[in-house]
Amino acid sequence: MKVVTSLSAWRSARDLELSSKKTIGFVPTMGALHAGHLALVKKSKAENDLTVVSIFVNPTQFNDPNDLKNYPRTMAEDEEKLRSVGADYLLSPEYQELYPDSYRYFVDESEFSQILCGSSRPGHFRGVLSVVMKLLNLVRADRAYFGEKDFQQLKLIEGMVEAFFMKTKIVPCATVREQDGLAMSSRNRRLSAQERELAPAFYRILTTMKSLDEAKAELGRLGFEVDYLEEHVGRRFGAVKLGAVRLIDNVAIGGSTS
Ligand code: PAF
Questions:
Q1: Residue 70 has pLDDT above 70, yes or no
Q2: What integer best gives the mean pLDDT of the chain?
Q3: Which residue lies with its CA nearest to atom 5 of ligand 1?
Q4: What does the angle CA 143 – CA 146 – CA 151 come to, to the nearest 5 degrees?
Q5: Which among 39, 49, 53, 41 is positioned nearest to 3, based on CA atoms?
Q6: Distance CA 239, CA 56 (A)
Q7: Which of 12, 76, 145, 174 is deepest in the core (most CB within 10 A)?
């Protein structure tokens, strides 16, 4: 695996690979990689000649400075994991190179980004869409892989790619769960042992409770702080806090539970 940190080095590598007409799959991440990320890398490897993974903890999508500060950073472990699944490139750019305009320019959406995580995390999706637009333009992949755990993010990225006639195909990938049902997330490692034990109840309640009111009451009773629990586009979406850790999840209503 080649590790590339400067954009000029990346552009040279990209041009070289482009001349050999290889297809490129891209997995953008913020690091602290887990089996969910590695499933995206494996899918990309199965569908493309080359797989590029980016690791960039994107400050513009954090509305809470403490969340940004505490976001897990595990570069050495991440590199090892990526090598073990055979990623071809790791791109990990610096903020100054990725934001030469100091975020004067951005991409935004005015409807679906305003609800759910968008209403509790103002500016979050503007930061996500802007960085994903930059990364997609730099990597120029044939396909890019995103997990359905962040379903709202996935739909907004699909919409952006369509709205701006971008060439990369967005490939949705089912949420990867721990054996007890908890959706894999980089934030899970910040849960205390006691919180980790309680965390799978979030998914269980999301999938089994008939009404949102019942689900909210049960989550509250168990000690979750409910940020939102809502149904849209045939899915039930939830965001909760366990101590200082915010967890999100979503499931299809009355269908598959991925
Ligand atoms: O899902 C994530 O990890 C991030 O939101 C993404 C897509 C890498 C953009 O920073």
A1: yes
A2: 96
A3: 128
A4: 135
A5: 53
A6: 23
A7: 145
Rounded Cα distance between 105 and 91, Å, is 22
Ligand 1 pocket: which of 132, 137, 154, 176 to mutate (most atoms <8 Å of CB)?
132
Domain 2-173, what fold? Rossmann fold (3.40.50)
Task: Let me know if 37 is a catalytic residue.
Answer: yes
Please name the residue whose Cα sits nearest to atom 6 of ligand 1: 29
Q: What is the mean pLDDT of residues 152-164?
A: 98
| DSSP string of 19-62, one letter each residue | HTT--EEEEEE-S---HHHHHHHHHHHHH-SEEEEEE---GGG-
Locate CATH 3.30.1300.10 in the chain: 186-252
Q: Which atom of ligand 1 is nearest to the CA of 186?
A: 3
Q: What CATH code would you report for 186-252?
A: 3.30.1300.10
pTM over 0.85: yes
Among 54, 117, 129, 150, which is best to mutate for testing ligand 1, by the most ligand atoms less than 8 A from CB?
Answer: 150
Given the CA of residue 61, which atom of ligand 1 is nearest to it? 10
As annotated, the residues of the chain forming the CATH 3.40.50.620 domain(s) are: 2-173
